[in-house]
Write a structure and sequence with these properties.
Layout lengths: L3 H13 L4 H20 L1 H5 L2 H6 L3 E10 L5 E12 L5 E7 L5 H18 L5 E6 L8 H15 L8 E4 L6 H15 L20 H18 L9 E4 L4 H12 L3 E7 L2 E4 L6 H10 L7 H4 L4 E3 L11 E3 L9 H9 L4 E3 L8 H9 L3 E3 L1 H4 L2 H14 L6 H25 L6 H20 L3
Parallel strand pairs: 3-4, 3-5, 6-7, 6-10, 10-11, 11-12
Antiparallel strand pairs: 1-2, 2-4, 7-8, 8-9
Helix pairs in contact: 1-2, 2-5, 2-17, 5-17, 6-7, 8-9, 8-15, 8-16, 12-13, 15-16, 16-17
Bound molecules: NADP nicotinamide-adenine-dinucleotide phosphate.
NADP nicotinamide-adenine-dinucleotide phosphate (NAP) binds next to helix 9.
Length: 446
């Protein structure tokens, strides 16, 4: 149930964005938290701040023609939603996946705006991508696609305008091809226009690891409030992409036993603890499927169907995609004794799932707080690019850890202040919303 003050705003969002279910869901979640803020700050309602935040500043859709290795022509669709620039240039990743459409990109851009605000860094919110599927494509095909994609997108980008990064299906390889084409078209070595670059051409140490590491730093803070640590805990991590692999790595460094991970073909369980080097070889080097893991580890088993959330754990880290933990999955996790869930993926828990966790007293770290380490380190990459500097791994990781601690404190204290102690979802939504709304109010009606 939404507060009266926001119900009609939500209805307008649904009417103006028909069929965009994930966007509706993301808006509903934020509106569900901010009723008390609007009661305390009636001026925000007068200025129609909520309505303005729900309407992206700009939505770009474009054709991406490209040729495969056999000369066949393909047409994909490219998107960039420039959601909000009150705090800085639009900032948020690009997703290449067949499920990408305007509603998905809009939901991601909306979430990104609040996430970026929580980092305390000067970055606005945006998101983009394409329905292109890089899976099974050769390096040359991926390069041709990226070059065609950038040939249209470049005119909307700039280090002071819009700064994309990676997301699902877009890693360092794709960012390299995109940056190369941007540089070629503009004749500018504008390193700060894209983040997630490789080290030799302006990348930052820790950016590859940042979302996964940051997620685990956030979990450590959540556990600390309960007088616990990750040491000796059993974890399950969904996905086996960028976020998942580095969440697994950091959790294991901190003494956790991570026993399961997945991809869209199924999940593996390794009770001895996952071998992260093997995972990197399979996923980052061979670009292969997760079932290959069990060929190298005799006690591991692969399950092609069913839910990874049936694997018992103390800590669950969803790191694959949106709505991957349903209400039923959440019930199974609660029954198996899981007490902490932190979202590496964006909006991986359905509304039913969120309710189930809250009702059961499970601590739930929402994506916009828990996975903000990636974009925060992207902002650190922009800082290094702007000052033509290159920080060490240790220094950058310390900065990341400090930022994640601060985000945790902000969410925790805000939840408390608004009468819902321990509710990180409310804490993150309220703190993120207030930061963006105050900046927008100061900038006038633009
Ligand atoms: P990635 O490297 O492409 O990995 C995605 C992983 O999730 C893969 O294992 C993939 O399996 C799995 N997956 C994707 N779609 C799926 C689906 N529909 N069903 C089942 N599994 C699916 O992407 P990533 O960068 O790790 O991103 C993962 C999540 O984290 C996304 O929600 C993203 O928005 C979020 N995130 C990423 C960053 C970042 O810095 N990269 C930052 C913040 C949040 P397949 O290979 O089989 O498809």
């Amino acid at each position: 149930m939404l507060d009266d003050k926001v119900q009609s705003i939500y209805e307008t969002v649904v009417r103006r964005n028909p069929g965009e279910l994930e966007f509706h869901q993301a808006v509903r979640e934020v509106l569900g938290s901010i009723g008390p803020v609007l009661s305390k700050h009636p001026e925000l309602t007068r200025m129609k701040l909520v309505e303005r935040i729900c309407e992206p500043e700009r939505q770009i859709i474009f054709r991406v023609p490209w040729q495969d290795d056999h000369g066949e022509v393909h047409i994909n669709r490219g998107f960039r939603v420039e959601a909000n620039s009150a705090l800085g240039p639009y900032k948020g990743g690009l997703r290449f996946h067949p499920t990408v459409n305007l509603g998905i990109v809009k939901f991601l851009g909306f979430e990104q705006t609040f996430k970026n605000a929580l980092t305390g860094l000067p970055i606005g919110g945006g998101k983009g991508g394409s329905d292109f599927d890089p899976k099974g494509r050769s390096d040359d095909e991926v390069m041709r696609f990226c070059q065609s994609f950038m040939t249209e997108l470049y005119r909307h980008l700039g280090e002071y305008t819009d700064v994309p990064a990676g997301d699902i299906g877009v890693g360092q390889r794709e960012i390299g091809y995109l940056f190369g084409q941007y540089k070629r078209i503009t004749n500018r070595y504008e390193a700060g226009v894209l983040t997630g670059k490789a080290i030799p051409y302006g990348g930052s140490h820790v950016r590859t690891e940042a979302t996964g590491y940051g997620l685990v730093f956030f979990v450590e803070e959540m556990l600390r409030t309960r007088g616990e640590t990750l040491d000796g805990r059993t974890c399950v991590v969904s996905g086996s992409g960028n976020v998942a692999i580095y969440a697994i790595e950091k959790a294991m460094q901190l003494g956790a036993r991570v026993v399961a991970c997945s991809d869209s073909s199924g999940f593996v369980v390794d009770e001895d603890g996952l071998d992260v080097d093997l995972l990197k070889q399979i996923k980052e080097v061979d670009r292969s499927r997760i079932d290959q893991y069990v060929k190298h580890r005799s006690r591991a088993r692969f399950t092609p169907d069913g839910s990874i959330w049936t694997v018992p754990c103390d800590v669950a880290l969803p790191c694959a995609t949106q709505n991957e933990i349903t209400g039923t999955d959440a019930q199974v996790l609660v029954r198996s004794g899981c007490t902490v869930v932190a979202e590496g993926a964006n909006m991986p828990t359905t509304e039913d799932g969120v309710r189930t966790f809250h009702d059961a007293g499970v601590a739930l770290g929402p994506a916009k707080a828990a996975n903000a380490g990636g974009v925060a380190t992207s902002a650190l990459e922009m800082q290094q690019n702007a000052s033509r500097d290159n920080w060490t791994f240790e220094h950058t990781e310390q900065r990341l850890a400090g930022i994640m601690r601060d985000i945790h404190t902000l969410c925790y204290e805000t939840a408390d202040e608004y009468g819902t102690p321990g509710n990180y979802v409310n804490g993150a939504n309220i703190a993120g919303f207030l930061t963006v709304a105050e900046a927008m109010a100061g900038l006038g009606l633009i």
